Amino acid sequence: MTVIEHDFPSDLDLETKEDAARLAKRKRLFLGLAGGVALLGAGYWGYDTFVASQHVVTDNAYVGADIAQVTPQIGGPVQQVLVQDAQYVRRGDVLVKLDDTDAKIAVARAEAELALTIRRVRGLVATDSGLSAQVNARQADELRADAQLMAARSDFEKARIDFGRRDGIAATGAVSGEELTSMRNALNTAAANLRAAEAARAEATANRNAAKGSREANRALIADTSIENNPEVLAARAALDQARVDLERTVVRAPVDGVVSRRQVQVGQRVQPGAMLMVVVPIQAAYVDANFKEVQLDKVRAGQPVELTSDLYGEDVVYHGRVVGFSGGTGAAFAVVPAQNATGNWIKVVQRLPVRIKLDPRELAQHPLRVGLSMTATVTTSE
User: Fold this and answer.
1) May I ask the CATH class of domain 68-99+249-280?
2) Which residue from 98, 143, 177, 203 puts its CA 20 to 30 A from 196's CA?
């Protein structure tokens, strides 16, 4: 009888093979993990080198605009308010009307003052001829006074000579006492007439000088001017223009195209010059101020392209813009209460610098934004 022997694996051989299989599997897993880590590292390096390093991103960005305040330039009661909050207006549209009663009265008063001034200047021109005639008349009076003075001097000289002759022979009895007395009286009368003629001559000279002074003073008011460019007329016309401007300013118009916001004026309210009535936000000229960390700005330059998305429209709407420039200081530098970095308890904080970004007007027209909305800005620094 033949006995057939079979080789069956022992338990030790089975355990050895299983350990070897597990070791090989573990080795393959470690190799796969190492390969995956290496692949991820290479991918991160490639992304950081070729993608991330070419862009800087921040979600600390907000829409802004050069808001126009609507203020009256004259005071008065409000007669009409023609707009409401959130209403779109065009430049020149009427927003508010003030009561124009006082302004109309001021215009009428200025018109009357201008007409009166023109008449007064015309009177000055006409007066010049009259004053010239007065000067000529006073010169004639002076000539007449000169003639009278010469006659008075002649009479006085004749009376003096006659009295001297008779007085010299009065002691001989050749001349009566009555005749001598008559000659003495004639001499005194001639002397009085001479003094009167001299006074009349001085008065005529003074009158002529006064007439000349009046004429020169009148000519100084109209010299080198016509009625239209006379200073008094120009001043009155300027006052009329100012009154008309004040009348036009009773109608308050929109300074720019935009949306009305923060309306604070009501009918019947009396407003003062410079008081804010409302604001007009030019949404068609909106921009974005993106607050980048200072460590992100080493490659950012003016003119670089920017892609932006808003929380309002989501990532489906992408805006395109350009970097305009950088603010003159960080937000902390312009804060109402600036940071006291010179104190002993100091902790360094990474600062943010506002970067102004100009948006594409066509994209703004398609998807309007509002001031203060949040944006995410991505600047391509490779360009």
Assistant:
1) mainly beta
2) 177
